[in-house]
Amino acid sequence: MGPAGERVEIMRFRFTLLLLIANVALFFGIWILERDESVDSKPVVDTVPFTVLEISGGGMEKPRIIKLENNKWRITSPINWPANLFAVNRIRNQLEFLGKETSFPVSELSTHGHGLADYGLENPSFILRYGNGSTMYTLKIGKNAPVGDRVYMLDENAGRVVVVDRAFVDGLVLDMESLRNQSVFDIPAFEVSAISIRIPEGDIKSGKISFRRIGLIKDGGKWKFETPIVAAADPREVDAFLNELCQISAKGFPASAEGSFDASLLPTSITIQGTNRRQVLLLGSPAGDDGKIYARLEDNPTVFILDEAPFKNLGSLQTTLRDKRMLHFEASQTVGLDISKDAKSVKLRKLKSGVWDVIGTNAKGDTLTAAADLAVVNDLLSKLEKLRARNFVSDISEGKNYGFSPKDALQIVITQSDQSLNSIKIGSEYKYGGANLMYAAVNSDPAVYGISKELSNIASTDFYHYRSRILEVMPSNSKVVSIKISDAKDNKQIFYANLNLPSPDSGKLGDRGKSALKLLSDSLKKFTVKEYLKTPFSTEGAILPDSKKIPWAYVLGAEFELQGTGSETSLEKREWYLTERTGGTTQYGGYKRSDAEFILEQNIIDALAELTTELSAPESLSKPAPKSVEPVALPADKPSESPSNDLNKK
């Protein structure tokens, strides 16, 4: 490398060294500036524990003082009340950002011919003092700056005048409504494990006073009363009451609490128990005529005003919060129902296949067994599962009958799959609030309830009430081969139809007749009845409830072809006895195979009428029509007159 190259390298080295020294100087200058700024304007809250806040000025008679006590912020002046944690945290956040606001030293004021009074800081609008009690820092709020919506503030400890937005000041100087916690109770509803309400009764002045206590406790996640009765509580009702109770808020604080609350009057009290803590609310006298009352907390002398509405019905909580569900069982797990009244009984049993059987007796005392109507059984189970008390009559029967004697009471015993039992007795009818209710008691509970008449109306002891309305079901692969209707007296054929081959009667049928035949054929494969008569089958006729007997008029026969194994088939016959149609919607039948008499379904009644009436027309309809009368000629000189005109003249 020549001399010229060496000079270039030396110049590059000097330039690089110069840049390095300049960067070091720049970084050092920035560090000095940041250090000075942090020393001058570092927020006090970063160096001093913030446990006390005082706000004075602004025409306040007493300063607002907030303190951190037992890890909770609390207002200690002008009232003793829990502070709003969000409001306190907002003030803390505002103070943390104070050092970032525009400011200038107080020492510069005199150099420009100004003093604190020019900025409204000699007699400030508000004064904030905060710190840990022993070391306090002060902020004074002055007047508005001439430019923008900004306010002068004096940070006495930093010796600086700070220029802040009006919103910044509003965030520091909050009113009492914003500073105080709105809720009276600070135990959340989900934490409450017990509720106790004490209500004074009697004459306080005479000293003849007693207390009625209503107590609830949460046991295993379920609410129950422990006094004045031992009973289950309705979890939804208790939760609703607790949510309302834990959200009540003070509507105001009387200027003078003297005489507004007299603890010697032994007021009503509400105690809620939380996790290792409890709170007691004392309710005082009315605060005027607008539905307000005085109140205070047991451990706090501050008197406040509440709406009276949530406390008007405290005395009836033992009924309003009580569990109105009377029978606690699962309908899907029920395998047996025993229903009895006045020496009559019926049993319902669920088989392993899932179907129900009904077991009862007839008028002669013979045991009857049949498949039960699933819809009727499910309806009864649903009514039992949804049964609710409409009225709590008494917690103790007090030796009264209420119609619960074995002869008078309707009793239902419910058996679950685990063989556990539930039972209910339904007694006499009574009036309550304009409604007709019935007395009821469950299991061995001495309490007496009032329930609607609905359950009593459907819980019958009649075997036929539960019997399946499906009288006969043929196999799904069967088909009707022929239908025959005969006279029950002389067995004379009235109608016959071979459904495989054309037959004389089926050939006479019109469209309506063919539709009736098709409907009857389909109905016979699954023969259902409208209602059973309470008598076994009799060859003499249908026996009605009033013992009136209607003789059989027809015999309805049908042949069914049943498919066997392979291509083999077999025929089976069925016969039903029928009365004449006694009304538009009533016709009786009998089925010897099931030992039953019944009322036919409307579709079968209409189909039978179409087939029997059309093919058995009255003899008068077969007579020839009368001869027509020849018209008589009138004399030409006389005008004709209609018969109606002659009648009018007469």
Main sheet specs: 9 strands, antiparallel
Report, as a whole number of angstroms, the end-to-end distance: 161 Å
Unreliable stretches: 28-47, 615-622, 638-650
By CATH, the architecture of the largest domain is named Sandwich
Strand order of the largest sheet: 4-3-2-1-6-7-8-9-5
Shape: elongated
Indicate the mean pLDDT: 83
CATH fold-level assignment of the largest domain:
Immunoglobulin-like
How many E-type strands?
36
Total of helices: 14
Secondary-structure-derived class? alpha+beta
CATH classification, class level of the largest domain: Mainly Beta
Number of domains: 4
Helix coverage percent: 10-25%
* DSSP strand content: 25-35%
Radius of gyration: 48 Å
Characterize the structure shown.
By secondary structure, the protein is α+β, with helices and mostly antiparallel strands. It has 4 domains: 44-179, Immunoglobulin-like (Sandwich), CATH 2.60.40; 189-320; 331-466, no CATH class; 470-619, Immunoglobulin-like (Sandwich), CATH 2.60.40.4400. The protein is 22% helix and 35% strand. It contains 14 helices and 36 strands. The strands form 5 sheets. Strands 4-3-2-1-6-7-8-9-5 form a 9-stranded antiparallel β-sheet. The longest helix is centred in the N-terminal third of the chain and has 39 residues, at 3-41.
